[in-house]
Design goal:
Helix content is 44%, strand content 22%. The chain is of the alpha+beta class and 298 residues long. A hairpin with a 2-residue loop joins strand 9 and strand 10. The radius of gyration is 20 Å and the shape is globular. 38% of the residues are buried.
């Protein structure tokens, strides 16, 4: 029926809708990629002729965990498609989904340990400058003995005044621009100036609730902006998380940012071995699924 899982999902969703005479046909196809990743393709076929494709990517986990994560993700996305809203489903579903957190933390701790060991082996230090994530990157990086050699310093600059105190310029923050790639990059630069760490990671954004302050309500809940710095290389981007519990969202941010850190270290090792400047093929605004949740383009 097709040469890829995406094409198979599309054909199946269309056939399901037509065969059963429903307004929306749904197909979810999963396959294994390599030894570390499992990919899923969701396609919805609507009676107005439109198609929607969503991609999920998970590490190889036990079947039960994958079913729980995928079910929650698919339900959230179907809800968003039906209601034309990025908001989550009902509170009971959110509470139920948070039971996955124990698995999430179990996976994040060894992932952070891998990152700190890589940093130590490469002789590099890191300094997180966090806002919406509230220090969770530093938390995971210090959950291992190697963290004391890798973590140079950390800042939690939760409001605009705290950001200015570490060196974020006032013009970058005016009229709600605190939620922007510009401010994420300014936070990372300020962290670099204050700590002289080799790598700086920064996060800012809106968590599960809309910020109703004047000039702040233009950014959807779940929109996260980030930046990474390594030497003269600067990278900034954004991603979207489905609003849920704050603890879950912070874990999702940590998973995503450790992916960014891993990409930075990969680029550094390639550049070092080739003795040439390497363009960083970083994950920016691409659909990512961790065992703890989803990251979608903003």
């Amino acid at each position: 029926y097709g040469t890829s899982s995406e094409e198979i999902a599309e054909f199946t969703a269309m056939a399901t809708r037509q065969q059963h005479g429903v307004k929306m046909g749904i197909a979810l196809i999963g396959d294994i990629k390599g030894d570390e990743t499992q990919l899923f393709h969701l396609c919805t076929s609507h009676d107005n002729g439109t198609l929607h494709h969503i991609h999920y990517q998970l590490p190889l986990l036990d079947t039960w965990t994958i079913k729980k994560v995928i079910t929650r993700s698919v339900l959230d996305d179907l809800y968003a498609l039906i209601t034309h809203s990025p908001l989550k489903t009902d509170t009971m579903l959110i509470q139920e989904s948070d039971r996955v957190l124990s698995t999430a933390e179990t996976l994040l701790n060894p992932y952070a340990t891998t990152m700190t060991k890589r940093l130590q082996d490469l002789g590099l230090s890191v300094a997180p400058v966090e806002s919406c994530s509230g220090g969770i990157l530093s938390n995971y990086l210090t959950n291992t003995p190697e963290g004391r050699n890798a973590l140079k310093a950390s800042y939690v600059t939760y409001d605009e005044n705290a950001k200015m105190r570490i060196g974020v310029p006032l013009p970058a923050l005016v009229e709600g621009n605190v939620y922007s790639q510009t401010v994420a990059l300014a936070m990372a630069r300020a962290g670099k100036n204050r700590t002289n760490a080799d790598i700086v990671l920064s996060t800012t954004g809106v968590m599960e609730n809309l910020d109703t302050r004047p000039h702040h309500d233009h950014v959807l809940p779940g929109t996260i902006f980030y930046a990474t710095l390594l030497g003269q290389n600067e990278y900034a981007g954004s991603f979207w998380l489905p609003p849920s519990s704050r603890k879950r969202m912070k874990n999702e941010i940590a998973w995503y940012m450790f992916h960014q850190l891993n990409a930075v270290l990969d680029a550094h090792e390639i550049e070092k071995s080739n003795d040439t400047k390497t363009e960083l093929d970083i994950i920016d605004n691409q659909p990512i699924i961790a065992s703890i949740g989803r990251v979608f383009p903003s």
